[in-house]
Write a structure and sequence with these properties.
Largest sheet: none
Helix content: 40-55%
Shape: elongated
Mean pLDDT: 84
Structural class: mainly alpha
Low-confidence stretches: none
Radius of gyration: 25 Å
Length: 93
């Protein structure tokens, strides 16, 4: 995701912001947040309110899988969309 500058800061103000360089001694004193703050709850995704999809084991030709995987992240959702569109076109009466 692309970071945006806050809208209330002018270009000149943004360019003037400087952070001090991080020294080796400063970095060596840092600890993971989980160690320094053990009460922070782990981020866990909760159950779906109304599950719409079901996991299924499916055997497909290798070239079909390779073609969809080559389209990048979200290939399984695109495959689902293609199958859904096929169902809409081939509805049985």
């Amino acid at each position: 995701m692309k970071k945006r500058k806050p809208e209330n800061i002018t270009r000149e103000d943004w360019d003037a912001v400087e952070s001090r360089p991080l020294s080796d001694s400063f970095l060596s004193g840092m600890t993971p947040a989980r160690e320094s703050h053990p009460n922070i709850p782990a981020r866990v995704r909760g159950p779906q309110k109304s599950p719409r999809k079901r996991p299924v084991s499916l055997r497909l030709d290798a070239n079909v899988i390779d073609a969809f995987r080559a389209t990048g992240r979200g290939w399984q959702s695109r495959l689902n969309t293609v199958l859904h569109e096929w169902l809409q076109k081939h509805k049985q009466a």
